[in-house]
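TL;DR need structure tokens for one chain.
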Amino acid sequence: MTKAKWLLIFLFVMDLGLTSMHLSGYFFLFLKPTGYLIPLVINIIVLFFVNKKLWVGLGLIVGIPALFIHGFMVLFMDYDYTKIDSPSHKQSLVIEYRHVTLGETTYFYHFYKTRFGVIGRLLDNQSVEFMVRGPEYPVEEGAEAALGAHNPTWVSKDIVRFNSWKGAKDVYLASSSSSVSTKEIENFILKANSNSDGEAITIDGNDFITRYDKKTGQRWIDVVSAGDEGLIPRQQCSRIVRNEERGYYMLEECTHQWEYKLYPLTDGQ
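>> reply
TL;DR here they are.
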């Protein structure tokens, strides 16, 4: 097999791999700051060596404008990156962020789960965007400070909580951690309020079970988890309520403390 064919095979495998990764939400993290600029340059160089006469003209006509357009897009988006390691150092969360100031400042955040810091998976439907006015928050503090990225809390091995300027934000690194929907929680609340007994729902490693005593007319919710490894200690609580101001479903009037943040009011936020 000639060198040209080997180069074309290499190019095909590289492009196919990058395309497949992109479609499945995976990315080489070291490519994120410049997008696909490096693979694009590699394509032009390889094709040039395969057939110089054909690709010199094509490279000038197509490749160079594509590089300029791509470079402009990367410059316009202007994302920065920071990485947060879990306490066990078994996985990390990479935050892609930027801000735009037009009278008000809008902050944008995307999150990627990574184990070794090379390949990251985009956490779908967990991106954050919020706008603040200049007097409300000092822009010079930066996007990381606005999110609370300097002091995150690993509430479990798969959940990171940020105390952002706009309130608490939980990021779920495992799909199983966020498998419950707000609709399911609302249905569970309705059942609990209708004095159902034995209805159950699992949220972030904890099982919540409705209880009702007909003799006393009392109702409550049992909180349990396998091996007592859930986010909330084993105990009994009175109810789950929506707290619009805090943006969370709250577990209230519990044995160990008055309330716990249970789950964001909006799925994936």
